[in-house]
Every structure is written in structure tokens, then in C-alpha cells.
Amino acid sequence: MRDLRRKGDWIVQHIRRQEKILGPANSGANNPGRSGNPGPGWFNGYYDNQGEKVEGKKEGGVRMTLTGQVFPVMSGVAEEKEVKEVVQAVRRYLKDKKLGGYRLNTDFKVPHYLELGRAFGFAYGTKENGSFFSHMAVMYAYALYKRNFARDGHDVLQSIFRMAADTEKSRIYPGIPEYFDSLGRGRYHYLTGSASWLVLTMLTQVFGVRGEGGDLVLAPQLLKEQFDRDGKASVMCSFAGKRLSVTYLNELHLDFGAYAVKQVSAGGKPVVHAVLSPVKVKISRKLIEQYGQPELELVVRLG
Questions:
Q1: CATH 1.50.10.10 domain residues, the chain
Q2: Is the domain covering 208-302 a CATH 3.40.50.150 domain?
Q3: For labelling, which of 102, 114, 161, 302 has a CA lying 20 to 30 Å from the CA of 222?
Q4: What CATH class has 43-204?
Q5: ∠ CA 10-14-16, rounded to 5°
Q6: pLDDT tens-place string over residues 246-281
Q7: Is residue 213 predicted with pLDDT exceeding 90?
Q8: CA separation, residue 91 to residues 103, 105, 191 (Å)
Q9: How many CB atoms lie within 10 A of CB 274?
């Protein structure tokens, strides 16, 4: 175990030293550089078959991938200041101004870049080459929530919703497709990988209902607009063999970052909970198991 940790620490430091991309000081992916401070940086995620670093300022424009940002953010390799830079860089280079979604990569301006794999034999905006790829977009949102960038994670999830709900363009029934093309059309609908990650993100990160070490953790990252007009937001799930209904009460309509967990009740009675942070509490699994009914209602008061 000690050897694995030492190797893991080496990899983290190596990525931080060698794979950080210094963002060019320009106003867009295809504009020429200008004097001034560098723009927000990001991480290189790939080397091609020739051993060439893929991402960064190249001839023809900026090359950037969303995948190369998701995993440093999700794993903790990116420090908080670097996460902030990644968010800025992704918005600058990968968020489409017209359709509002997040592309999988910028246009590399290389037809049939097969040195990077078969995906780059597709036309730009199709499948894994620069489309609005739902699976990676949801994973990016999950990573942002995991690092407590709730507002930014919400924006990513909303971008998928807005594209799917624009049926004049998407031409799909409600749901989440594998990807949207450059015309905003949903393709390969309904893809379970994207859907399962979306459910996971909403339950464990947005509503913050998840297990840790066998116990139940409640750590909401709901924004004020995600509560109804009475200040309620609810979710149902299974835990410890019981059907849980978790309701958050935000009667003051506070935003994430402004509210804290004030009280937790189970079955209408206050329940003892460990406070891990202002918005993260833990309830013992044994306490939940001792309730005799198969269904249990938890109410969390925020303030």
C-alpha cells in the first residue's frame, strides 16, 4: 500500500508539473494571440501515436479536450485555483455560444487525425470529434460538484436539458442522447451510460444523498432556484434496505454557500447526526436500520 501511494503521489506531481497548459492570451479559440497576461490554463489529456502532446496552442488554433479536464478535477489532481482556471478555459473554448452546450473538444483543423484514434476520422461535430457528448458533459458536472463548484456544475447539466428540450432542433423525445451534433440534433437516444451518470450526479452530488463508510451522508448542493416556492426539494432512493424520502426545507430561500444544515428529523422526530461541515452531516446506518417500517422520511431543515 505504501508503495502504491508513493507511486500515486509521483503521478499527481508529474501531471501538475508536465501536463499543465498555459492558456493563450486571446479572446477566442481561433483568434491570433495578443500581448498581455496568459488566459486561463488547463490540462493536457492526450499524446498521439507520434508521442506529440495534443492540447495547447497549435497551428490553426487552440486544441483542448473536455475529457482531459474531467479527470484531473474529479480526482483532485487539479488544485482549487486550477479548477477555477479549468472552468474559465472550458467556457472560453468548449462552450458553444450559439447552442449553449459544451463540446467534447475544439476543432483541431486536421482532417482524419487518425494518429489520435478512429474518433478523429469523423467530421468535426460528429460523435467523439467535437460533438456535445452527453456522457462526458455529465461527468464534468459530477467532477465540478465533487469539488463544490455547484453553480458551474448546474450550468453544465442545464445546458444538456436546454438542448434536449429544444425539440425543434433536437428532434428527440424527452431524455438524454449519446450526443448532440453541430445542428443541435440528438443522436443515439436513449444512452444508458449518460443516463446513469446523470442519476448518480443528481442523487449523490446535487441532492448529496450517498453512503460513506456504511453510513448515510446528506450533503446538499442545491441552488436556490432548485427549491419550489415553499422552499422544498425532495428525492427518493434506497439505503440500508429501506426506501428513503429525503426532503430539504429552505424556507429562507438561501443559495448554496449561504445555508447550513440546522436540523434533521427521521419519521417526524429529531435524529442525532454527526456534523462533518455546515452542509454535510452523517447519520449512522444502525440508526436507520432500527426503524421498523420499510419506508422512512428524512426532513433536513436548512437555514
A1: 43-204
A2: no
A3: 102
A4: mainly alpha
A5: 120
A6: 999 999 999 999 999 999 999 889 998 999 999 999
A7: yes
A8: 10, 12, 25
A9: 11
